[in-house]
Design goal:
Helix content is 48%, strand content 13%. With 262 residues, it is α/β, with parallel strands linked by helices. It has one domain (3-250): P-loop containing nucleotide triphosphate hydrolases (Rossmann fold), CATH 3.40.50.300.
Length: 262
């Protein structure tokens, strides 16, 4: 059974793409077949894997508009068991055409629903709550919300929770979410305080692992490599491996919850 994970937060700069790539690579390292789908017109995930977005002929825009099926949209990466549906500027041009469709929030779901080729599909969303993010949340089993322990990031959680409720009511009642604390500086008193407040407020809806600030993450993005390959002994690589383990356990729990036995 394929598990679909969306990575989203309407606030930018909270390590969404870093989390999508690092989690995907860590799951692949654990033996999972992983597909990454770049839903951001800025194509940061595509760039992070070493591709030049402007030169790509097949992208997620063609997949969503109905011109391509999933197999045609997928391209291989240089990393074992990780494949990509890339993005580029064409996604900006495609979005208005999606909105005129009555089923515009379910287009991605229709493309992925019969997939059996991957264990995990990870959707890297743009920093908005618009059409592309709504498609992702209407498709996902689990939403991971990367959240920096700062005031504006914590405030943006409210908007995401409202969006989750709307998606559950309209399209995807099984959608679950988990908050991931990212870019945490434990030397910073305010960071520590806000992280504790978020943990208290959300209790079980937050991952145990925290992703701390690590310069190796920035370096790995520049080098076009996942952190577990660029710096496998780094703190960030170990923390994202822990996230992959937690996500795997939670995915198994969801499968048991929603699988009925004869």
């Amino acid at each position: 059974m394929t598990h679909i994970i969306a990575i989203a937060n309407a606030k930018g700069g909270v390590a969404k793409t870093t989390t999508a790539l690092s989690l995907g690579a860590s799951l692949a390292e654990m033996g999972k077949r992983v597909l990454l789908i770049d839903l951001d017109p800025h194509a940061s995930l595509t760039l992070s894997l070493g591709f030049k977005p402007a030169s790509l002929e097949r992208t997620v825009a063609g997949l969503l508009l109905g011109n391509d099926d999933l197999n045609r949209a997928v391209i291989p990466t240089n990393f074992p068991d990780v494949e990509l549906v890339p993005s580029n500027y064409e996604l900006n041009l495609a979005e208005p055409h999606l909105l005129v469709r009555a089923d515009y929030m379910m287009l991605l779901h229709k493309k992925l629903k019969n997939n059996q080729s991957y264990d995990t599909i990870i959707l890297d969303c743009p920093p908005t709550s618009g059409t592309l993010t709504k498609n992702a949340l209407s498709t996902a089993d689990l939403l991971i919300i990367p959240t920096q322990p700062e005031y504006f990031s914590a405030h943006a959680l409210r908007n995401m929770l409202n969006l989750i409720l709307a998606i559950r009511q309209r399209n995807n009642p099984k959608l679950r979410y988990r908050i991931l604390l990212t870019m945490l500086d434990k030397r910073n008193r305010i960071h520590r305080s806000l992280a504790e407040q978020i943990r208290t407020a959300f209790n079980e809806a937050i991952f145990n692992v925290e992703i701390e600030i690590d310069t190796k993450l920035r370096e790995s993005a520049i080098m076009g490599q996942p952190i577990n390959q660029y710096a496998p002994e780094s703190r960030a690589a170990k923390q994202y491996h822990e996230l992959a383990e937690e996500t795997g356990h939670y995915s198994n729990e969801l499968n048991r919850r929603y699988t009925t036995t004869p």
